[in-house]
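Onboarding guide, step 5: your first structure request.
Type a short instruction followed by the sequence, for example:

Predict the 3D structure of this protein.
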Amino acid sequence: MSEGWTIRPATPSDTAGCGRVIFEAFGAVNARHGFESRWLSADFASEFIREFASLPGIYSVVCEHEGSVIGCNFLDERGDVRGIGPTAVAPSAQGSGVGRALMANVLEHAGNGKSVRLLQDSFNMGSMSLYASLGFEVKEPVILMRGKPSEGTGTLLGVRPIREGDLEACSRLCHAVHGFDRERELSDALRLEGRMPLLRVRDGHIVAYTSGFGTFGHAIAVSDEDMRSMICAASRSGQDEIELLLPTRYSEFLQWCLGRGM
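The system replies with structure tokens like these:
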């Protein structure tokens, strides 16, 4: 593709274009490597972007060419550590510098001195090369786990839905485990349809919580047992499928997930 495209802030009218680009871009790279795409359709991606981009603290940008969206990128500014993605470029525009321009835009918006994270599929060498050239460092490999754990896999003792009054305590737990908090993300999750924020109390203290097991959710726990309890509770409460990103260093927890049918 010849130049002539422009980078600009996204508007609500770009939602369908962003959904189409995300569906096509991720579908193409996944198909090349024999993996199922998490973006089931353009409509599914558009609905996700409509909800995600409307949240306070989400910066959205698109690349436009001849009136059509050919790329998009997002920056989650709700915490001290900014999160990038989803980042997508239409297959017809890949290799033309659009992806680099979209990344440069959100990194400039994040500002110097800010911590920024992103996650990518390990088989996507094109994006890995781009991110490495922009200064990103590989910190940790994670595994996408999916499924509905079999019955009788853990105790539900102390697990309950998160309430507004729990946010400060959950924030302290996140600080203790990771060194920063994600309170605004958790607060938003309480109001999003389809999310199931849970926590676990043990010995009078919150020892685990999740903003929801699924795309763009996060979970924190003091121990494997505490995390297992929340997964079991989410599974037994009617959630069709549990989905989580598991760091590979938690080998015993990985074995537990695999042993329960995930």
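Each response can be followed by summary notes, for example: The two ends are 42 Å apart (CA to CA).
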